[in-house]
Structure formats: structure tokens, C-alpha cells
Amino acid sequence: MSTDDELAERLRDGDEKALRTAYDRHGAAVLYLAQRLLGNRADAEDVTQVTFVAAWTGRDSFDPQRGTMLGWLLGIARRKAVDRLRSAARDDRATDSVRAQLGPPDDRETPERIVDRLVVADELGRLPEEQRRTLELAFFDDLTHPQIAAVTGLPLGTVKSHIRRGMANLRRRWEVDGAAFGTRSAGPSRAL
What we know:
By secondary structure, this protein is mostly helical. It has helices at about 5-10, 15-40, 40-55, 70-100, 110-125, 130-140, 145-150, 155-180. The chain is built from eight helices and no strands.
């Protein structure tokens, strides 16, 4: 069994077996630190893996004169765990911001709303490809008519015609289904 100094020398020389030995020797300590910092086993395992990948790619930076291999690995693990915590905090802030803009969730998933969405999706699927694409860009991607023309390469007048015809098809289908079920208003605005 080699010492950490010998192991470090082999690691710096690019010996992949040295990385495995370092993991076998110090992986449990790295995992323990990551789990203590993150409080989550799955995230700690990810950080442990990222730590050893970073150790491999940055193996030239290890200097046994400045500290032990374990200390070096724990320093990498600590930085990676802090990065993970910061990333999670950013994600949480972004999620909160989006939720605040959307308003309170509508938990009333009624059968009528499900049917409405299915009718719209079915009718969109029946439209010609270019017509369906222009409607999707207009309503789902919130693009203007000139933006849709630029994205699709279609003339502006064609984009407007596709949207107008597509909406007319949706409206006809909506009115027919609404009359059959007696639940919908005339117009596709509730589902879109």
C-alpha cells in the first residue's frame, strides 16, 4: 500500500488506478462532509463524484507541501457543495419568481377543463402543419405575427391567414362540441 505522497505522485502522472485508490481511501470522508453540508444523500453522492472528477482534472494543482491529499479533496468537496447550495438557492428564487407572476394555482381540475384541453389538442393535431405551427408560436410561445414570419420564413400575410383560419377551425369545433355537451361558451379562449 502506497503513502498519500506516492499516491499523489502517481495521480499527477495520470495514473487512473491512483484515482481509484484515492477514492477507495478518502471517498467515505468526502461523502460524509458533503452529506453534512447538503443534508441530502443523493446530492452528497453527486458532489462526491464531482469532487473526484475535479481532483482528476486538477491533479497538477495538488501540492503535498501545502497539505494532505485528504485535506485537498475535502477542500474541493466543500467548494462543490457550496456551489450546489448556491445553485439550488438560485433555482428556488427563480421558481418563486415564476410562481408569483403566475398567481395562485387553480387546483380545480374539472372534467370539463380536461375535455376542453383535449378538444383543443385534437383540433390542433388536425390542422395542416404550417397552420398548426403558426398557432402554437402565437399562443404557446407568445410571438407576434412579424416574429412568426421571421421564425417560419412565411410571408406576413400567410402567417395572418393561417392564424385566422386555424382559429376559425378551432371555433367551429368548439361550438359543435359545446352544443353537444352544453358546457362551453362559444370561443376557444378558455382552453388557450
